[in-house]
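Consider the following assembly input.
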Amino acid sequence: MNRAGPGAGHWRWQRLALNVLAILLAVLAWHGAALWKDNLLIFPTPLTCLSALGDVLSDPERRDQLLITLRRVVVGFALGSALGVAVGGLIGSVRSVALTLEPVVHFLRSVTPVAWIVPATIWLGVGEGSLRFIVVYATVFPVAINTLTGLTQVPVNKVRMARTFGASRLRIHASIVLPSAVPYIVTGMRLSLGYAFMSVVAAEMVAGRDGIGFLIYDSRIFFDTATMFAGILLLGAAGLLADRVFSVVTHRGLARFYAGQVNT
Amino acid sequence: MSATTRARTGDGAANRTRRAAARRARLRGAPVALAGICVILIGWEVVSRAYGKPMLFPGPADTGSTLLDGLTSGNIPTASVASVMRVLSGLLAGSLAGVLLGLLSGSSRVLEALLEPFINVFRFIPPLAWFAPALLWLGSGETSKVALIVYTSVFVVAVNTAAGVKAVPRDMIRMARTYGASPVRLFFAVRLPASLPYIFSGVRIALGNAFMTVVTAEMLGAESGLGVLITEGTANTDVRGVFAALITLGALGLCADRAFVRLLRRYGGRFSAATREEGSIR
């Protein structure tokens, strides 16, 4: 950004051209490697993968797999974020809660969500409940920890000013501490969105009956490598799109919380 | 010279008092923390007793004795060593590759534009999705598992490194140039040291990712490892074993993270004011 000068508009097009060039080169290299390997089962060409992708998208039943996975991500992400803000906010505001829960949170955070698939399926059964549990688990901790950090990084001078003007502790909390934590919460949520995608695929592969993760796993068993790659590409595209949408929406909608920050 | 020494000792003394105060505060909080953790443990035990099936929902007592059994029989230590070795080798290779990629894409706009589509797309493809291709290409041995860990570490480190290279204060670069530093000198004496804090924070995230990925990779097939213990527990519907493995895993991940932060503070402190001042491990 800081390098944007008079030629910035020009550079934007050059950059786009370079992006496209890089992708084209990679696809060409992939095609060459696949032809050289000459084994479609192990190393399909980009064209076969593209046609497999077309098959997946035109087949209503398999197209639904993508929607199923996306719905799991969205629901789990929303629940997990809300819970994360609540937990992080509680830990950040009440000292006795912090002393009790913080070590527990740090411990649970370092256990991977995927490892909970097994207990979750034993308790909640194979199905929606345990998949949702995994996604919620994956999203809670980044949000909680970022909320906590945000609550401790409040600009001291603003708090001092509010106190000088006679604001109550509750008032300070509501109108200074919480708003200044919003950028941190948003960052945590953005991280969590990525984790939600990762964990939902893992959960679907291990304990699912449908969804993109299951599609990938299923096509491996049938040695349908092209469909497997189609699933992987689909996943990357969906994740990238979700991330872009999230960052645009939050920057537009929450712009006032970023006031005074240069690098948004 | 004497002025800097004085400033430094003054700083050290201030740090020491601050650290002592923090330690006192922690000691004062200890009883509350302990009581809280006891309440949580008792609650867990009560819920598990009420559930009534220790195989399916073990309490802390059952889990603890299974954990002890595993530790003394050498089951859990062997599995932990296998998992940790995978994590370390994958993390090392992945971080080196990530630093290289990040340095390249951070120091030239053209290279950045060429690399960014890949970094952006691969970031959102979870390592587990590559499990099947990795099996096909690299076989079911150690290579495919380590490759997955390399994959989880590379992009985080690359993105962070690139951000670090771009965030080098321009005045520093100008000063070095004014004093006639060659581009190579500029890179090794200014750009690389200034971006080290970013690189380290990338490696720290990658460490966490590696601990996640190794379990998944092992759950889908390995000879030994904590992930294998978890799968075995499922096969026998014995959640006690799963819990013991989970606790070991969490403890290892937590210790690795803390150890990394400690090492960084001790040996990497001079590269970053931030790790010394705000990198408080809470």
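Chain B has eleven helices and no strands. Ask yourself how this observation constrains the way the partners meet.
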